[in-house]
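Quick one: co-fold with 5-amino-5-deoxy-1-O-phosphono-D-mannitol.
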Amino acid sequence: MCGIVGYVGENQAAPILLDGLYKLEYRGYDSAGIAVYGEDGIKVVKARGRLKVLDEMTHGGEMLPGTMGIGHTRWATHGAPNDTNAHPHFNKDESIVVVHNGIIENYLKLKKKLESKGYEFCSDTDTEVVAHLLDYYYDGNPLTAISKIMHRVEGSYALGILFKDHPGEVYAVRKDSPLIVGRAKGGNLIASDVPAVLKYTRSVYFIDNEEIAKLTRDTITFYNIDEEPLQKTPTEIAWDITAAEKGGYEYFMLKEIYEQPKAIADTLNPRIKDGRIVIEELKMSDDEMRQIRKIFIVACGSAYHTGVTSKYVFEGLARIPVEVDLASEFRYRSPILDEQTLVIIISQSGETADSLAALRLAKSQGVRTLGIVNVVGSSIAREADNVIYTWAGPEIAVATTKAYSTQLIAEYLLALKFAQVRGTVTDEEMEGYIRELKMIPDQVELTLGNKEKIQKFANRYLAAKDIFFIGRGIDYAISMEGSLKLKEISYIHSDAYAAGELKHGTISLIEEGTLVTAVLTQEELYKKTMSNMVEVRSRGAFVMAVTNTGNQEVEKTADFVIYIPQTNKYFTNSLAIIPLQLFGYYVALGRGCDVDKPRNLAKSVTVE
Ligand code: M6R
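Sure, here it is.
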């Protein structure tokens, strides 16, 4: 989704804005622009396409002198991706300029009203309404104008604003779209996400909903919607700048695939103490955990897939019934919730609009909520009653890998914690689970050793039309994620099927040479899935299998086999997903796709 940066300080703003926008490229965009306040007033340059175009147009920012400005990468919602619709947007006399992330839901009504007062619009965006509305309310005091528009505008917004009358001041405000403020030496910054400011500072403020920030070179002041000053404490970001850089890898996705052993260990190790699961941030007493009768796991995309796996893990280990929901469905389906329900929201970004809405729905019904979140200080992390952080570090590639893997770990830990408290596993069993959990980082490392074999195999499928994934139980959940990894970055059509469902319709899709990837990590289901492999193979399919070491039997029915180390049946997803991530990556690479920034996708889906 859109990315925002802003700077006011002692250095030239444009190169800092461009640099920040490059760090936000992962969010997905189709046009970009910057506004810089220099000696001749506010100058705006914007262009459709990649940031490189804007970079070249402004000679790396040199053509726009001035030490304050705002910048934007736009992911089109209202109006086509073109130069006119790109942000920033001016008011009529070019004295107020705005960048925006989010959706102004009542923009048509506001536009009509403004047009009736003589305002003229030149773009198709909802954002332009904000520029004119600010103009309408502006009487010399930026804070008052901002506060007034906050009362009028419905929807979600993060805004960066400059006023010509107020040189040396950058304003920012947010509601339901992320925005942070960085306090740096010699200048201050705003941004949609931390990587954009890491080069300059690790001291960051998270702007809360309906808060306004006013930045000058040396000061940062926060206000509420009533223009009353607020005290806020900065958070020190623990990542260093290299965590958000490629470090010699061709793509962030491959780097992040390789970071998985460490990310898993960072998420796991601090939560195992003296042979027990200790989740310090969990603010639920043992009694409260015992009272839970039902869990809803709610998430989107890959995070949802980890939830599908966790249903088996929670139900198997802690014997609690679990429903897994897509957040976009949950929020509109009147779920039956009560005080014995726990709603778990899983989100890497902590800003996904549907997941956030689902969290709010659960909270509004007085239900206990728990977020499993990667981005510290994000909306879901702040609003959930409890939060368990996944310590994956910054994930830049749109296709998630290490965040997915750490979500699984957090969910295993939580399921085991419930099992521990509710006495559904013996001490001896717990010892075994913990021993196996601790082996996962090394086993992932070992599985990554299949890289070349997988790349070679992937290169045979660069022209495939369809690729299917099949499995049963947890293997079906793994298949769903394997299929998503492949299709989102390679643009090859792919679907995952519960293997037992093939005969009920989907087997008719199999043609001579179709690749079917079968996942077989659940011993009690081996034979069943193998029968399905035989069925597709006898209809011409080529079968790739991912299975546990020792299951040599599978070679009789598969044409290509990747073995993963032996682990507990509940944890196999953590290993089996590795070859599927690599497969998707190498197919996309071989097809010349922009692996980190697949078309039409955004890293953080902050609009509905
Ligand atoms: O930030 P979130 O975890 O809430 O994002 C949810 C999905 O958009 C996300 O998992 C998406 O499916 C992945 N980028 C796919 O690789």
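If it helps, The chain has 18 helices and 27 strands.
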